[in-house]
Description:
By secondary structure, this protein is an all-alpha fold.
Amino acid sequence: MNEMIFERCEEMIKKGSTSFYHAFYGLPSPRREAVFVIYAFCRIIDDSVDEPEKAPYSIHELREQLQALEKAEGHFIWPALRWLFDTFPMLSKAPFFRQMDGQLSDLTLTQYSTVEELEHYCYLVAGTVGEMLLPVLRDDSGMKVMESGIALGKAMQIVNIIRDVGEDQRRGRRYIPLEMMKAHGYTEEDFHNGIIDEKFVSLLTELRKRALHLFEIGLSDIGTYPQVSGFAIELASSYYASILQAVESNEYDVFTKRAYVNDETKMQLFLEVASRYPALLGEGPKAAVS
Length: 290
């Protein structure tokens, strides 16, 4: 396939998520290119809802084009996806459609009531990414591996929700379930006013524990992956989980501050994860922090 198409996908992941880019850049071809293509399409799906004025397609157009992928034209993502499904025949379109369902729900369900609703949303928009990546990162499958891949996606989405509380609040969205808020004595009025007190800290602490538990489930079978894939997954998870520490360092002010992981911390995490993969040192993966 035209190298420029891969370069366009690579540009999107490099711009949209340096953590993902650094973690997966060391994968061998064609796994690396496949991750870039998956990320690019997921980014386009996300933008179609969050920034429709900048997106090349509406989410309804994306669904139609994916359904008729053999004939889809007009954007680099369509030949990229045709290559993806041809190269990795174990990968199906189903998780992409489910992710679209999740993104569509953002247009109608903006205030979450129950933990069950949140879990389902996290599965649709992020657990599905685990389902997409699994056939790309390993050559076999199975229910347990699929469950762990889904758990990792859900863990990362909960981290996103914690990090983006303020941004989502300004968009009129509240992903923190009302039943969880009530359990901690934190009111909807507190949320709208951006109140950070011991009730809010205990609320975020519960969400943090939920995310870390899902990370633990997700990484429980990391040793069954090809080593380079396992390294990439563990590194991406490590980068993401460290956002929770950044939130704590910001004294849980997720209303006015955006938690991020600096390059020095990323390098420390890289070295820590790399120490568990001594066979890879010196031969790949490539440097994960620039």
